[in-house]
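Contributing new records

If you add data, match the layout below exactly. Sequence lines come first and carry their own label; structure lines follow with theirs. Keep one chain per record. Anything else will be rejected by the validation script.
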Amino acid sequence: MGFQPDRQSILHADPPRPLLLWIHGAAFSGWVAFYIVQSGLVRTRNVQWHRFLGWFGLALGIAMVGLGFAVSIIMGNFDAVVLHLPSPTFLSVPWFDMTAFGTCLGLAIYWRKKPELHRRLLFLASCSLLDAPFGRFSFLFNNNLFFPCLDVIMLLGVGRDLFVDRRIHKAYRVALPLLFAGQALAVYLYAAAPAWWLGFTRSVLGI
């Protein structure tokens, strides 16, 4: 999660991007593969393998949170100093993403013996990462539509509940309002750039 959506190909970026960005990309891509595999294992009733690989997912998730915060700062400084891009206040977006992902993942692990809670929290954790790929599209980023786009994906889970269970699970009833509020705050800090937040982000980035 970069400081600004860098639409250049990382393979041919000029100037070259920091190495940690490659590691970040590999870890976050690995999460997508991990999530698909885990879902497949549950679907095919390979519960023992699912539980075994779950600890790998926990380690990967912890690493992702650390990488997310670190890369946001490193790329924020890179964008400001090397690329001369404005708006250090964008840090609010990746920081919220990592907070949402880490919280949902942590609760999913805590309630791993409650499958209905566990799988919905992991779904929400995975969805919370989607604003970065949506933000690669200039129109979505420039109009602050990256969060609404991922919200549509999360609401598909709600739609599934209504269609199959005829009710919305409490995981969604509690988590979604909090996530929506967090998104609104992140966008406000980024777009409105209150002086206290601008000063704080500049000090964090060392610019």
